[in-house]
């Protein structure tokens, strides 16, 4: 029989795996693969989760998040929800720049995208969407947050994370460290199409009262919209809005 802590970890990974396939839904095999579980184990756990409303199957037989998660989230929103503060900031960025703008929050060693607002420019990047998660150091938001952690935390994360295996040589530890140094010099992060070729991103970290990065504002778009001269303009805008959002969150 699985140890209780192990079961909790597996369930957590499985719920995250299903969330990554929202709103389209996930097959059992896809959820198992994403969560790093054997298919029979994933199916057994999903069946138990469905019985209590944490997941359910749609008309096509795909797994989706269940209504009980909505009720649990609503109960916790008063303590953790910052989207009401971030929403107008994200909208201002999208309107002012014409690009897609986002707010992502840090959750442990990951970022999760909570908000997206598309700007007026007709060609958009679809790398980010609400609910998607990336490890720290991946995508502009994850890089912006990682860059402003303590050096010991950065060293520990890069020592235990194998970003290169999942995201390619551009995410080898040495390459990530170079981008961390550049982010600290500029004050904002730049992702030059490292996840999807031609899809660029920029981000600035949002800090809490202890000057710890707890989230990031980001912009994404096609490479031609992120030339060097405009990067400086967008970077200044991102840092200003991130500073204002941090003040609002602390207040």
What secondary-structure arrangement, pairings included, does this model have?
Elements: H1 4-20, H2 28-35, H3 39-51, E1 55-57, E2 63-65, H4 67-80, H5 83-97, E3 100-107, E4 110-117, E5 133-135, H6 139-147, H7 151-160, H8 163-167, H9 173-186, E6 189-191, E7 199-207, E8 213-222, H10 228-250
Antiparallel strand pairs: 1-2, 3-4, 3-8, 4-5, 6-7, 7-8
Protein name: IclR family transcriptional regulator
Domain IclR-ED: 68-251
Pfam families: HTH_IclR, IclR_C
| Order of strands across the main sheet | 5-4-3-8-7-6
From the N-terminal CA to the C-terminal CA, the straight-line distance is 47 Å
The CATH class label of the largest domain is Alpha Beta
Coarse shape: globular
Percent of sequence in beta strands:
15-25%
Number of helices: 10
Q: Which regions are unreliable across 5 or more consecutive residues at pLDDT < 50?
A: none
Order of helices and strands: HHHEEHHEEEHHHHEEEH
Kindly provide the radius of gyration, computed on alpha-carbon positions and rounded to a whole number of angstroms: 19 Å
Q: Main beta sheet: strand number and arrangement?
A: 6 strands, antiparallel
Looking at the structure, the CATH topology of the largest domain is: Beta-Lactamase
Q: Which class do the helix and strand fractions yield?
A: alpha+beta
Instruction: Report the average pLDDT across residues.
Output: 91
Helical proportion, percent range: 40-55%
CATH superfamily of the largest domain, called what? Answer: GAF domain
Overall CATH architecture of the largest domain: 2-Layer Sandwich
Got a strand count? 8
Pfam families: HTH_IclR, IclR_C
Organism: Nocardioides seonyuensis
Domain HTH iclR-type: 5-67
InterPro entries: GAF-like_dom_sf (IPR029016), HTH_MetabolicPath_Reg (IPR050707), Tscrpt_reg_IclR_C (IPR014757), Tscrpt_reg_IclR_N (IPR005471), WH-like_DNA-bd_sf (IPR036388), WH_DNA-bd_sf (IPR036390)
């Amino acid at each position: 029989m699985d140890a209780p802590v192990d079961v909790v970890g597996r369930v957590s990974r499985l719920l995250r795996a299903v969330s990554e396939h929202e709103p389209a839904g996930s097959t059992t095999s896809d959820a198992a693969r994403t969560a790093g579980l054997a298919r029979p184990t994933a199916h057994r756990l999903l069946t138990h989760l469905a019985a209590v409303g944490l997941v359910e199957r749609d008309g096509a037989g795909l797994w989706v998040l269940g209504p009980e998660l909505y009720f649990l989230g609503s109960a916790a929103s008063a303590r953790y929800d910052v989207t009401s503060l971030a929403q107008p900031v994200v909208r201002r960025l999208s309107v002012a720049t014409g690009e897609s703008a986002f707010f992502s929050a840090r959750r442990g060693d990951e970022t999760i995208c909570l908000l997206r607002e598309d700007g007026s420019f007709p060609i958009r990047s679809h790398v980010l969407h609400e609910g998607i998660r990336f490890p720290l150091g991946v995508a502009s938001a994850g890089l912006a947050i990682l860059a402003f952690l303590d050096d010991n935390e950065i060293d520990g994360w890069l020592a235990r994370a194998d970003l290169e295996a999942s995201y390619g040589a551009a995410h080898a530890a040495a390459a990530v460290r170079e981008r961390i140094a550049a982010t600290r010099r500029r004050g904002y992060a730049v992702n030059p199409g490292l996840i999807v070729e031609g899809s660029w991103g920029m981000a600035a970290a949002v800090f809490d009262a202890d000057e710890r990065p707890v989230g990031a504002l980001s912009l994404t778009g096609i490479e031609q919209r992120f030339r060097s001269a405009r990067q400086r303009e967008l970077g200044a805008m991102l840092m200003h809005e991130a500073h204002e959002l941090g003040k609002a969150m602390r207040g």
